[in-house]
Amino acid sequence: MWHASILTLFPEMFPGPLGLSLAGKALRDKIWRCDARDIRAHATDRHRSVDDTPCGGGAGMVMRPDVVDAAMDAALTEGVPRPALFLTPRGRLLDQALVRELSAGPGVVLLCGRFEGVDQRVIEARGLREVSIGDYVLSGGEVAALALLDACVRLLPGVMGAAESAEEESHGASALLEYPHYTRPVEWQGRSVPPVLLSGHHAEVARWRRAEAEKITRERRPDLWARHTGTETSARAIAGQTAAA
Ligand SMILES: C[S@@+](CC[C@H](N)C(=O)[O-])C[C@H]1O[C@@H](n2cnc3c(N)ncnc32)[C@H](O)[C@@H]1O
Fold first, then answer.
1. N or C: which terminus of the chain carries fewer CB neighbours within 10 A?
2. Do strands 2-8 and 107-112 pair parallel, antiparallel, or not at all (unpaired)?
């Protein structure tokens, strides 16, 4: 069973929305396990403090290394070894490649920061992988952890209905964003479903979807478009080399 341990000051935030819909059903079906752990349970003083003022001065508070380390110890000693991640806006951006990698493993241990963040020494001592969910600042790592877990859990075997849907969608096998979707009614508020989608001609539908995916990617995400055209070029070059050999 894929095992997610979340170290947080707010364990009651989990599984939260992940207790519903696809992820919730997978939780009940024991495809994955969600174990939210209260960092404060590892505080040692009589005030149960988990944070202290920043060395060098400045605003806010910093989470203490000894308390975080003890919480990490307790989580990591349970079950098989799992990668430990710290959710932070200065981490590498979460993308589908990392989601695929994590969901293919045994699970994750996620450290959620609060206040100004976590003492650097425990991040280094534990070799935590720093991951951000976007270039903006949340008030805590819990919402970031929920986003990461949601993305991983839907890729676990048996969670999504059609096996191919993860390949076809945005950030799937190709670097292309997904084509637009339509359903009934065929006419709605003066807008029609593109006639090709009603033609029953599978090859034409596939061609149209591919062209739309390319157009959307080119217009909205030049970075992904460059990666896609680069991939296509190298794939053609490899095919050419193989044919010539
Ligand atoms: C108020 S933030 C601290 C921001 C920090 N002082 C900085 O400037 O990088 C508190 C916590 O929220 C979490 N957090 C905030 N934004 C995030 C993001 N974009 N991705 C992942 N975690 C985030 C981190 O765990 C962070 O320690």
1. C
2. parallel
Closest C-alpha to ligand 1, atom 4: 116
Mean pLDDT of 64-70: 98
Question: Domain 167-244 - what CATH class?
Answer: mainly alpha
For 172, half-sphere exposure in the C-beta direction (CA atoms, 13 angstrom radius) is: 12
Interval between CA 149 and ligand 1 midpoint (Å): 17
Report which DSSP code applies to 83. -
All structural domains of the chain with their residue ranges: 2-153, 167-244
Q: How far apart are CA 187 and CA 198, in angstroms?
A: 12
Predicted pLDDT of residue 231 = 66
- The answer on pLDDT for 26 being more than 80 is yes
Residues β-bridged to residue 130: 86
Beta strands in 125-184 (DSSP E): 129-132
> Are 2-153 and 167-244 in the same CATH fold?
no
Query: 242 pLDDT band (50/70/90 cuts)?
Result: very low
Percent of the chain surpassing pLDDT 90: 86
Distance 137 CA to ligand 1 centre (A): 5
The protein residue with its alpha carbon nearest to ligand 1, atom 19, reads 89
Residue 138 assigned as binding residue: yes
Strand-pairing partners, residue 37, are 7
Beta strands in the chain (DSSP E): 2-8, 32-38, 51-52, 62-63, 84-93, 107-112, 129-132, 187-188, 191-192
The superfamily in CATH containing domain 2-153 is: SPOUT methyltransferase, trefoil knot domain (3.40.1280.10)
The alpha carbon of 138 and the centre of ligand 1 are apart by a number of angstroms equal to: 5
